[in-house]
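Researcher: I need the complex structure. Ligand is 2-acetamido-2-deoxy-beta-D-glucopyranose. Inputs:
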Amino acid sequence: MGFKATCLALLIAVLAVFTSTDFTVLISLSSLRDLSLDAETFTYLSRGLSPLFGQYVGRHHHWRRHHHKYPDDGQRTASICDNFPPDIPPPETNTTVTLCVDRNGCCNFTTVQAAVDATGNYSQKRTVIWINSGIYYEKVTILRMKPNITFQGQGYLSTAIAWNGTANSSGGTFYSGSVQVFSNNFIARNISFMNVAPIPNPGDKGAQAVAFRIAGDQASFWGCGFFGAQDTLHDDSGRHYFRDCYIQGSIDFIFGDARSLYENCQLISIAPPVPPGQKLINGAVTAHGRTSKDENTGFVFMNASIGGTGRTWLGRAWRPFSRVIFAFTTMTDIIAPEGWSDINDPARDQTVFFGEYNCSGAGANMSLRVPYVQRLNDTQASPFLNMSFIDGDHWLMTTSRHNIDANFSISNQ
Ligand SMILES: *[C@@H]1O[C@H](CO)[C@@H](O)[C@H](O)[C@H]1NC(C)=O
Ligand SMILES: *[C@@H]1O[C@H](CO)[C@@H](O)[C@H](O)[C@H]1NC(C)=O
Ligand SMILES: *[C@@H]1O[C@H](CO)[C@@H](O)[C@H](O)[C@H]1NC(C)=O
Ligand SMILES: *[C@@H]1O[C@H](CO)[C@@H](O)[C@H](O)[C@H]1NC(C)=O
Ligand SMILES: *[C@@H]1O[C@H](CO)[C@@H](O)[C@H](O)[C@H]1NC(C)=O
Ligand SMILES: *[C@@H]1O[C@H](CO)[C@@H](O)[C@H](O)[C@H]1NC(C)=O
Ligand SMILES: *[C@@H]1O[C@H](CO)[C@@H](O)[C@H](O)[C@H]1NC(C)=O
Ligand SMILES: *[C@@H]1O[C@H](CO)[C@@H](O)[C@H](O)[C@H]1NC(C)=O
Ligand SMILES: *[C@@H]1O[C@H](CO)[C@@H](O)[C@H](O)[C@H]1NC(C)=O
Ligand SMILES: *[C@@H]1O[C@H](CO)[C@@H](O)[C@H](O)[C@H]1NC(C)=O
Ligand SMILES: *[C@@H]1O[C@H](CO)[C@@H](O)[C@H](O)[C@H]1NC(C)=O
Ligand SMILES: *[C@@H]1O[C@H](CO)[C@@H](O)[C@H](O)[C@H]1NC(C)=O
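Model: Output:
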């Protein structure tokens, strides 16, 4: 309580100091400490962040009502680390090393990349990188030689890593990720990954902007946020588990050729609203990249909820053997009645595997679906409906045991 109240007071004080006109507000980044915002405000704030100034520059919003001055502003600023948790970082054990990142300098590292660089090469111990609240404006890469890293944030609406690379600026979509992980056994908990490049206009080329790329095997994500527009989450390769995550985007916003199970995730489309009566489809939730029938990859969504704006496909056949299954998922009417796209290549109708099983909501009405969709029965659905799809019984329980908070359960619906 004390910590949160101090931070809020700080924010208020900073606002009072920096308010220059009725319409423009500058918020120093450090004032974003420990604020847990709603997802929309969080996206809005991060999109206004300028790395050149280290400040948020944006239109005056609902912050306005907080414009009163705090008498002891200077003193509070001086004691910004006073409430820093005393038990962070915990001492090294036989199995775990903890490194601490705080952008205000309250512990050893001020950037996430510096902590990543300091982890042992090919370490068999788990390195927990504990990241304090705030938005870390940096591009982060974890090379293959750094396995067993955990990013531990303070909540997906409190801690985020953001950058603004695009396909054009990064030498291709695949390298545009704000955070890119090439190593195995990566874990992220309670943290967000954002790409804050300008949202592309229809037809723009080279504006794809990945927030996160996972190209290592046996990765898991618990309570994480992924914020972007086109190509938000590059679920590239390997076996992955996503639980209780928030994933926002517009076109192909979960794409790649991984074998992944998503449980209890929110998939939020930010494609522009389509006026009633127009047939336009302007988004796709997934674009899976399976290239042959011998490849055991695919995206499975269990108990997801799909909402937001625009009119969107559940998936596009990015590659001929694209495989995506939605089970027990609620869908609003943003899902186009046909549901799926073969990207105008009818040959792919024979080779894709697009399945739906026990979904609900206005968007789940299958009466106008494309003919090649699979209406899965219980037997057909069962191989996809638990963690054995990603061999999770072999690795997921083991890696998860190294989390700070062991208080979770994996359901076997
Ligand atoms: C940690 O390793 C040391 C040295 O190998 C050993 O003596 C100790 O028992 C180990 N502790 C635990 C908790 O496993
Ligand atoms: C972090 O800082 C503390 C105190 O300065 C120091 O004892 C510790 O070794 C540092 N840890 C790392 C991983 O740099
Ligand atoms: C890891 O390897 C790289 C490249 O070989 C080297 O530059 C770096 O110092 C090593 N880091 C550690 C922590 O050993
Ligand atoms: C570390 O990674 C290696 C291979 O990437 C894996 O075999 C090992 O089990 C991992 N250790 C921990 C503690 O996760
Ligand atoms: C990222 O932001 C910086 C600072 O605002 C800007 O100079 C740069 O052009 C942006 N990059 C892209 C690809 O939008
Ligand atoms: C990307 O680069 C191409 C070629 O230079 C250019 O035509 C296009 O406008 C650029 N896209 C964006 C979003 O800047
Ligand atoms: C389904 O997901 C919601 C959160 O989106 C969660 O509250 C609920 O417990 C989940 N149901 C099951 C059966 O896991
Ligand atoms: C799924 O739906 C089918 C009918 O489409 C029904 O027979 C089955 O009982 C449902 N399964 C579950 C677990 O709800
Ligand atoms: C599903 O869509 C069809 C065609 O639009 C419509 O006739 C039917 O009433 C819908 N079913 C439900 C349960 O809404
Ligand atoms: C499910 O569908 C498959 C393929 O059409 C069929 O062989 C099987 O008998 C069905 N199983 C059930 C339980 O309906
Ligand atoms: C997962 O599903 C498979 C296929 O239906 C089944 O053989 C296995 O027992 C299930 N595993 C768990 C852990 O429930
Ligand atoms: C993650 O956040 C949730 C919700 O805020 C909280 O209940 C949980 O304890 C957190 N877990 C970790 C490991 O940070």
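Model: Summary of the prediction. Residues 2-78 form one domain.
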